[in-house]
Sequence to fold (63 residues):
Amino acid sequence: MSGTIILALIVLGLLAAAALTFKPLRKTLGLLLVILGAIACLTFIGLIIGVPMIIVGGILLFI
Fold:
């Protein structure tokens, strides 16, 4: 794996850890994922990405 992919995975892991520990950030990320998922669902190909984004965003929003 290249260095960029490893760095992206580390940053993603840190964001996930921060989202689970800090409630306002968790709510913000959840709402952002729901909105971006809804926008992505406007196209047929975007359904593959949009629906999981909405599900994960809903979980983060209502924890």
